[in-house]
Amino acid sequence: MRKWFIFGVVVLAMAVYGCKGDSQCIPNCTGLKCGPDPECGVSCGSCRQDQTCDDQGQCQGGCTPDCAGKCCGDDGCTGTCPNNCDAEFVCNPDTCECEPCSLGSPCPGGDPDCPVDWPVCVAVYGDTLCSITCEQDADCGEGGCCLELEETEKYCFDADRCGAGRVDDPCPFGNVHADAAMCGLGLTCLGLAANGGQGVCPSGSAAECSGINEKWNPDCASGMCGASLCAAYCGDERSCPEDYFGTDVISGRCYCVPDREAVEMCIDPVNNIGCSEGNSCIPVGGALLQCVTAGSRTTGESCGGLLGDCIGGHVCAGSGGDTCLKICDHDADTGCEETGGICTSWQGIDRWGVCLVSD
Q1: Long-range CB contact pairs, 164-172, < 8 A, 24+
Q2: What residues does 246 pair with on adjacent strands?
Q3: Within 10 Å of residue 356's Cβ, how many Cβ atoms?
Q4: Can you tell me the distance from the alpha carbon of 181 to that of 233, in angstroms, rounded to the nearest whole number?
Q5: Are 43 and 36 in contact, with CB atoms under 8 Å apart?
Q6: What is the pLDDT of residues 20-58, one digit of tens each?
Q7: Integer-rounded Cα radius of gyration of the chain
Q8: Model pTM greater than 0.90?
Q9: How far apart are the C-alpha atoms of 273 and 312, rounded to whole Å?
Q10: Distance between CA atoms of 45 and 36, rounded to whole angstroms?
């Protein structure tokens, strides 16, 4: 089992609601991050130790975001750098630098986001990408292909969308099925990493990976079991063929899978949804989620730095990495309703945070 630890989290104060005088007082902390509530005088929260609370109830000072030379990615203060690329440029998520738009570049703003060479913004299977009409592969440049889209026009697509893999075919997923064909247009490669969590195969044969449903194409990679398959996008209607199931797998996007019980799909760490019984869904870096063995300890209990000691929906965190804290959704500000506290993000994890309460 892979162990993950979260360190350096600073404890914040919990908002305490109460009464003023003999009548019920309803606090109002709208727009306030710290300081007293103007109606009842109760705390609306407190700032980190390196910050101060100003007269407007906002935390000031402390960490200064650094986005110099970056158009996306981490700003160094648990935030994200804004996309400041000019028209016909896109921010490369790997280098966080602006690069000229090309075939297959995203175009959320429609045709104006696309360069002269690839001027048409095409909506395909939940994505938007820059393209151009075509008649043959040669019209699409090196590595590109000309494919018919929904029996209408033919458009150029980049190499990542030109694979020969069809629905349910194995596909390259890390070192799992590394020699398989890439998934074709409209399909995404889903898989289980061969990291020991799915079992081992000392002889090198996938036949030893009996714990993985055959529909997911088990594979033995470096003595460890994994699996992968090409899956179709469900769409907003969550429509799948008979005997397939729509399952939210990647960032809330729905894909049709042949057997949703065949593999653990960690999709909601706040409510511990997606993992099999006895396991816990946790964030492990960036937008990645993973199923790990759950423990028996709950909010506020010592977990000794072992992630698996906490029950589902919790992680072993705190300033010393030794206390079970409730996982929350920082973007939606939900998840701390039962335990109390403030949902606080931590560096290196997208969207998810932990509920922090005052001592």
Answers
A1: 165/189, 165/230, 166/230, 167/230, 167/231, 167/232, 167/256, 168/215, 168/217, 168/229, 168/230, 168/258, 169/217, 169/229, 169/230, 170/217, 170/219, 170/228, 170/229, 170/230, 171/228, 171/229, 171/230, 172/228
A2: 256
A3: 25
A4: 18
A5: yes
A6: 333 457 777 888 888 888 887 777 777 766 678 888 888
A7: 24
A8: no
A9: 9
A10: 8
